[in-house]
């Protein structure tokens, strides 16, 4: 009978546990930093644009997603967790945002948009919106969206630049790129 000592290259059960815990801790830290950046970005953007609401719509699977962050002027405008209309956002619209499209709608009532899109925007109290894609190397990660809920709004070139810069800031963060 031979007794083999554990090789130094073979981690012990305690080392496996420690490595697993370290991976969990690292992921938690990355998620916390990512969430803080997104909340800070949506808050600053809402204040800079002076709008009723700024949201992050995150795509969790093939153009299906939900509002995962929001910054509000008033809690009555909350749409946190909203999933949108499945049939409205399709490959055609995804391709436009994948190409970097920024969409500014001054008034949903006079803009030539799909009826399902108009109905959806009405259902979440939107009168004007500004949308910028968050593009990471894997593709379209999400949309950063500013909403004016109470009245139409003409979006200025500076407004468009602000939302584009915020979307790029999010897209270039390593914690978002890796999520």
Automatic annotation (TrEMBL):
Comp. bias intervals (Polar residues): 1-12
Superkingdom of origin organism: Bacteria
SUPFAM superfamilies: GAF domain-like
UniProt organism field: Amazonocrinis nigriterrae CENA67
InterPro entries from the UniProt entry: GAF, GAF-like_dom_sf, Phyto_chromo_attachment
Pfam families reported in the protein's UniProt record: GAF (PF01590)
Domain Phytochrome chromophore attachment site: from-to ranges: 33-169
Region annotated Disordered, chain positions: 1-20
Protein name as annotated: GAF domain-containing protein
């Amino acid at each position: 009978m031979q007794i083999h000592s554990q090789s130094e290259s073979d981690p012990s059960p305690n080392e496996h546990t420690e490595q697993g815990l370290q991976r969990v801790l690292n992921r938690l830290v990355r998620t916390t930093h990512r969430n803080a950046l997104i909340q800070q970005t949506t808050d600053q953007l809402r204040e800079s644009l002076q709008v009723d609401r700024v949201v992050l719509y995150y795509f969790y699977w093939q153009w299906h997603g939900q509002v995962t962050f929001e910054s509000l002027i008033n809690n009555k405008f909350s749409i946190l967790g909203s999933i949108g209309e499945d049939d409205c956002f399709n490959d055609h619209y995804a391709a436009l945002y994948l190409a970097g499209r920024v969409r500014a709608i001054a008034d949903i009532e006079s803009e030539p948009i799909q009826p399902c899109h108009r109905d959806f925007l009405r259902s979440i109290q939107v009168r004007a919106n500004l949308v910028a894609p968050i593009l990471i190397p894997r593709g379209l990660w999400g949309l950063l969206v500013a909403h004016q809920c109470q009245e139409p709004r003409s979006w200025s070139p500076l407004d468009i630049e602000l939302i584009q810069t915020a979307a790029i800031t999010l897209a270039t963060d390593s914690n978002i790129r890796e999520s």
